Amino acid sequence: MLKSRLLQAAFGLCIAAAAGIDTAYASEAAQSAAPELSADFVAHDFQFSDGTVLPDVRIHYVTIGTPHRDAHGRIDNAVLLMHGTTSSSQEFLTPLMRRELYAPGQPLDAQRYFVVIPDGLGRGGSSKPSDGLRTRFPRYGYTDVVEANHQLLVDGLHVTHLRLVLGVSMGGMQTWMWGERYPDMADALMPVVSQPIAIAGRNWLWRQMVIGAIRNDPDWHNGDYAAEPVQWLRVMPLFAVLTGNPARLQAQAPDRKTATDLYDNLVEQARKSDANDVLYWFDSSYDYNPTAQLNRIRARVLAVNFDDDLLNAVDLDVMQRLIPAVANGRFVEVPETAHSYGHQTQTHPEVWKQYVSELLAQH
């Protein structure tokens, strides 16, 4: 069941078998296990940003830890984590994430913090096109994903203030939006592998390749297909190329045969996803453009990007130009090292967890 590290990262599956957990960690986890809950919140009469209303929208979520209440009865230790485009809450629930983030003494020690990890709208156990509506499902955008998470927190969990909002990739983009949309709700924001600009250039071109391959597949039938369209599957390995580290990819596929085998495996991994869901995943960034409202952000911001991330290329100088618009903002470019994984360094908190500690210590 344990896939190669590259396959796990490439499609955001990040599923590890029990054999992947070392004995010492398993023993430590058993001794210090914090309460963990997996549940669904239903938002009734949910209105999308285009005006469409669904009577019930389900948001699946996981919580780790216990809410702490202040003298006024308000939860004061909540942290929101938001995952990447092709993933779900499972991205933050791998053995590595648990060991590096939530274990005793780690930055988000679950004995201290109440960690909330939703499946973003359209993904995982949350409402999505493949539940039955297919392309009759409303065309959601990042604004809708953020609003659904907000309703989960406020109406479902009665969390009205957050110690930290941390998101990776798509979740990082939504972290910028969170700071603008709810400027007084969080003490700190940490967007990882993201930039506060509309998706364009290389980052949009490859997404459009996937979208175009789905929509132009003769079996797609405007989303009402009897059998899954397959043309997009042959494009999807591009995701691994753009989100991985070139040196690691070369080591993973050092000759033509292993590279071809890797391609075939990536195609098979993609086959596990529904074409309509995938189409919505990549199209949903259409309303992402936070640049003009960065000055609305009041929370402390520490943005973290990686030198070897091809999707958020550091040579575009985006962060240098835009971070001055954030009153309490700064950014870090983590140099490429032997421990880098390109864009997928997002799944390796051992590389960036020090910045979580640093940001929370400023409170």
Automatic annotation (TrEMBL):
Transmembrane segments: none annotated. GO terms for biological process: homoserine metabolic process; methionine biosynthetic process. Residues 1-26 form the signal peptide. InterPro entries: AB_hydrolase_1 (IPR000073), AB_hydrolase_fold (IPR029058), HAT_MetX-like (IPR008220). The keyword Acyltransferase applies. Gene3D superfamilies: alpha/beta hydrolase (3.40.50.1820). Keywords: Acyltransferase, Amino-acid biosynthesis, Methionine biosynthesis, Signal, Transferase. Residues 78-324 form the AB hydrolase-1 domain. GO terms for molecular function: homoserine O-acetyltransferase activity. PANTHER family: HOMOSERINE O-ACETYLTRANSFERASE. NCBIfam families: PRK06489.1. This is Homoserine O-acetyltransferase. It comes from Paraburkholderia fungorum.
